[in-house]
Each structure stands twice: as C-alpha cells, then as structure tokens.
C-alpha cells in the first residue's frame, strides 16, 4: 500500500530532527574552531603583521556564530544556512592561515572541521565541492606566501592534505547516510501500521496537533470520523485470522481510495480506523462516508461510522474523537452500515 502524503509534515520527521540536532552540533564545532585559534594566538602569539586584524576577525567570527545560533529555519532553508556556515568557516580558516603563514603547518587540519561539518549536514556532493573550494584556497595561500605548489615538498603536502580531506568527507557522509536510512526505518516502524501501511495511532495523534492548531487560527472546520468494522470477531472465528486480516486490508484500501491527499487516515486499533478531514464540516464528511457505504460490498463486512466536527461539536480534538466514537457506537447499535453525526439521534443508513 502506498504511503500517504501527510499534510502538514510529520512533527518528528527524521530529516528535520537530524538538521535540528546538527545545528546544535554546528555551533559546538564553530566554538571549538574559535578556541583552537585563540589558543594558538595565546601560545604562539599574534603575528607581527595584521595581528590585531586576526583578533578582530576571530571575534567577528565568534559573533557571527553566536548570532546565527539564534536564527531558526527549518527544511531546505536550514540547509542553505548550514552551507553558509561552512563557507564562512572556510573563509575564516583561510584568513587565519594567511595571517599566520600556516599553509604548510599543522593548522591546515583546521579545514577538517569544515569538511566534517559539511559531510554531517550537506551530503557527499556538497562536501566534494567544499573540498574543491578548500583546495582552491590552499593554492591561493601558496601563491600569497610567494611560494609555488609545484615544488616536490609542497606538492606532496598539498596532495596529502586534500586526499585526507576527501577520505574524511566521504566516510563521514557515508556514515551519516547510513544513520539517516536506519533513522527513517525506525521512524516508519514507529509511525506506520504493519498490516495496512497506514499511520498508526501514535503518528495520527502527532499529526493532528498542527492541523487542529491551523484550523483554530483560521477558524476553518475539520471533521473527525471513526470507522469500525462490524463483526470482525465472527470472521476471525469462522474463517480464520487470515480472512480477518484480508477484511481489514480491504477496508483500509477503500478508505485510502476515497480520501483526498490532505485527509489524514490511520488504523487506530484492531478494526477501528480514524480519519481527519481538514476544511470539511459534518455534512461534507457524512456525504463522503455515505458514498463509501453505498458501494456494493458483496461478502465484505459492514462498517459503522461516527462523525464529529470542529468547531460545531467542540473545540478540543480529544473531545471530538470521543464524540465521533460514541456516534459510531450509535450507528452500530442502530444496525450498522451507517453514518451518525454527533448529536443527531437518527443515523443515516
Ligand atoms: N484478523 C485480525 N483480527 C484482529 C486484528 N486486530 C484485532 N482483531 C480482532 O478483531 C476482533 C474485534 O472484536 P470486537 O471489538 O468485538 O469487534 P467486532 O467483532 O467487529 O464486533 P463489533 O465491533 O461489535 O461489531 C477481536 O476478536 C480481535 O482479536 C487484526 O489485525 N487481524
């Protein structure tokens, strides 16, 4: 069964969580860089020429990191912000190496911080481009230092550094990718029902919150529908659990087919499904469910349906769910295969 396209996105989407996590880690990397540079300046001393400029640049870089840590973007924009962080990091390291004449020294490995940051957040391709940018900066540093990279010693040093950056960048990206894939699998296992592939109760409850908040802000209606299969126990007992599973799957497919892409559908428990229809009042939800009931079902089990709507029947999702549930029981006690709306005594068969 195809996955639903959730609107809005899952609150605990792994990519977003991952990027939020990396953002916190990013500031720690930047402050580590500032600490290493500050330690160098204290132990080795500021260079004679441009020493104060370097102190100002280090302070400015620290200020940038502090300021950026207060910004919070999500999704694609967050990735651009992370990319800008790595470019600024490369620029700052290049400036530091230029001022300290460090292109042939051990401080060249500071570039590893930018490579690792990029590999953690931006993927293999962006990291390869960052290594290319670092290679260009290194060539520029050789040029500004008045030397040539074409001497055997410099060429060896240059090659060793760039190969090390490539290896670290590639392996870190690969590792992060593996972690990302397993995160996604765990998230799917935690959010999807294994039999039907629909959202489970936990995911549904999470996804409802932003939809409810949006409806409250815009004063737009939405409907909660509880759908329960009639007599599943009889099928299980007479035809076996395999037939019961097939009946559940078949109902899941019918519900999936009748919903819009913005509607939320979940298997809430054994034979109980819940739908949330944004921008739909109780009459709209009833019309939709009556169409489902009108479909000739042959030997398939009947279903009982209850509807409650925001804001007509309540302004808390939990209450609406209870109301839709008791409306569903009203349908069941009236003979099943019908839709009942909260507060309407008469069920529509
Ligand atoms: N085959 C199968 N059965 C399940 C599954 N989940 C729950 N059940 C069974 O479904 C039955 C549900 O029983 P009830 O809640 O009494 O529902 P019902 O038999 O449909 O009766 P009414 O809802 O009163 O019409 C129980 O026997 C559960 O064991 C499942 O994934 N597969």
UniProtKB/TrEMBL annotation:
Entry's Gene Ontology molecular function annotations: diguanylate cyclase activity
Enzyme class: transferase
Reactions accelerated catalytically: 2 GTP = 3',3'-c-di-GMP + 2 diphosphate
Residues passing through the membrane, by range: 21-44, 50-68, 80-98, 110-143, 155-176
InterPro entries attached to this UniProt entry: Diguanylate_Cyclase (IPR050469), GGDEF_dom (IPR000160), Nucleotide_cyclase (IPR029787), Rev_trsase/Diguanyl_cyclase (IPR043128)
Every GGDEF domain range: 220-344
UniProt entry tagged with the keyword Glycoprotein: no
EC number, as in UniProt: 2.7.7.65
Keywords assigned by UniProt, alphabetized: Membrane, Nucleotidyltransferase, Transferase, Transmembrane, Transmembrane helix
CDD domains the record matches: GGDEF (cd01949)
Protein name from the UniProt record: diguanylate cyclase
Organism: Halomonas flagellata
